[in-house]
Q: What sequence folds into this?
């Protein structure tokens, strides 16, 4: 049974949650491998909206085991809120969720450190979500992090927090501020959280290997996306984890040899949250129209997303890094009313045409998009559940994206609901789940 990775091909918010939800009935396990509650996956089912931050989107399906892999960072309070919200909507979150004992915790001092860091950057602020994610990963790399597993031994918690506290206080005092974290309160909350969720905290890599030994399939759900990957994204305007397919091996404890396929998820246009280069960004009028039609406001922060046109250069780069076997093109319906649709096919830099995504940010920042214009279809696409029910010009548009990226398109999404989806017969999907 195949293990498949779902990865965002752009700057996030591509609709990965919808695609994971759609493919979950074909597997037995859904595992997240990176990020924290800075991610927000919105899934709409029967008109009901579910927002997932750290709990894998597979949780909406009864009988599916969901796993939060070691590559994630979790804030206990945010986790409890998310769990309560899901339960209020009738979704059970119990033994169907395993949290890796190696997951690092996002704690109150991480929020304070992120706010301080953004403030100190001034006009070079990264536009992060201020959820403490970056500083939690910094503590992990600095070997002063506290893990979910640490909560199972509450007696040594205070001692384990000492290094993080010392580091935090040095930074805050150095900035001329007063540290104001109630560490005793933090310990008390962590102890009760550990007691409450003890049965969920496990060696997740072992759990995943046991599931594979039973012949079960795993869907790996990426958060954030390729161009925000810590190593391969538009550094420093990136997230703090490995969002690309390679992150699965590290962030879930499953070897690369057990990964059988990778699906990239890309919008039919492009968006970006936060600062940083965005070569195919549209002019404000067109961007505003895309934002309004695509409801491009962050699920986590409510911030308006920057909007632009499909960037084939960036999508080719994402294909190179992740090895996409197939693509899901989402939000095609957002383009339904347009006369003409620009696609960015290359960049211009100092008189030269660039076909490859520059690794040098100072080059990328000065790249100008080369656009080709494709006629729109001016007809509604939601409800077209078969490829040949899409307007001919819409099919041409999708085929052109596929040609420019060099990857087949296996799924076309034309609305937030599960039903507004075209799954193509002759795609890698068919061979994975035949
Ligand atoms: P993710 O983090 O990649 O899962 O993406 P988000 O959830 O942040 O953003 C995607 C948004 O688009 C969500 O509100 C989805 O419900 C919505 N969505 C997904 N697919 C489609 C689609 O094909 N058309 C439209 N109009 N909305 C979609």
A:
């Amino acid at each position: 049974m195949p293990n498949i990775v779902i990865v965002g091909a752009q700057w996030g918010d591509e609709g990965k949650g919808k695609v994971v939800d759609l493919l979950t009935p074909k597997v037995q396990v859904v595992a997240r491998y990176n990020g924290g509650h800075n991610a927000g996956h919105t899934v709409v089912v029967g008109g009901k909206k579910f927002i997932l931050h750290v709990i894998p989107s597979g949780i909406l399906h009864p009988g599916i085991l969901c796993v939060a892999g070691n590559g994630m960072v979790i804030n206990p309070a945010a986790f409890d809120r998310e769990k309560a919200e899901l339960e209020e909507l009738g979704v059970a979150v119990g033994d169907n969720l395993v949290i890796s004992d190696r997951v690092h915790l996002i704690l109150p001092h991480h929020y304070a450190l992120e706010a301080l860091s953004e403030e100190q950057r001034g006009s070079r602020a990264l536009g992060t979500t201020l959820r403490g994610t970056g500083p939690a990963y910094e503590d992990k790399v600095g070997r002063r992090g506290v893990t979910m597993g640490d909560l199972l031994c509450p007696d040594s918690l205070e001692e384990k927090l000492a290094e993080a506290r010392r580091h935090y206080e040095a930074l805050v005092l150095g900035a001329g501020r007063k540290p104001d974290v109630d560490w005793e309160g933090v310990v008390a909350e962590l102890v009760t959280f550990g007691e409450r969720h003890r049965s969920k905290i496990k060696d997740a890599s072992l759990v995943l290997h046991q599931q594979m030994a039973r012949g079960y399939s795993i869907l790996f759900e990426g958060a954030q996306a390729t161009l925000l990957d810590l190593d391969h994204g538009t550094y420093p305007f990136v997230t703090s984890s490995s969002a690309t397919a390679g992150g699965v091996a590290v962030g879930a404890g499953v070897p690369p040899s057990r990964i059988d396929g990778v699906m990239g998820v890309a919008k039919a246009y492009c968006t970006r949250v936060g600062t940083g280069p965005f070569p195919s960004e549209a002019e404000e009028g067109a961007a505003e129209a895309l934002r309004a039609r695509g409801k491009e406001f962050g699920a986590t922060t409510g911030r308006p997303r920057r909007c632009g046109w499909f960037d084939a250069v960036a999508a080719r780069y994402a294909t190179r890094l992740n090895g996409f076997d197939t693509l899901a093109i989402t939000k095609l319906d957002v383009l339904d009313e347009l006369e003409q649709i620009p696609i960015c096919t290359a960049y211009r830099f100092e008189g030269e045409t660039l076909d490859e995504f520059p690794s040098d940010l100072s080059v990328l920042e000065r790249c100008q998009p080369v656009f080709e214009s494709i006629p729109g279809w001016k007809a509604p696409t939601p409800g077209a559940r078969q490829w040949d029910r899409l307007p001919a010009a819409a099919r041409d548009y999708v085929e052109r994206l596929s040609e420019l990226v060099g990857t087949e398109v296996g799924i076309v999404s034309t609305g937030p609901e599960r039903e507004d989806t075209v799954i193509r017969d002759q795609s890698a999907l068919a061979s994975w789940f035949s």
Residues 8, 13-18, 40-42, 44, 299, 330-331, 333-334, 413-416 surround guanosine-5'-diphosphate (CB under 6 Å).
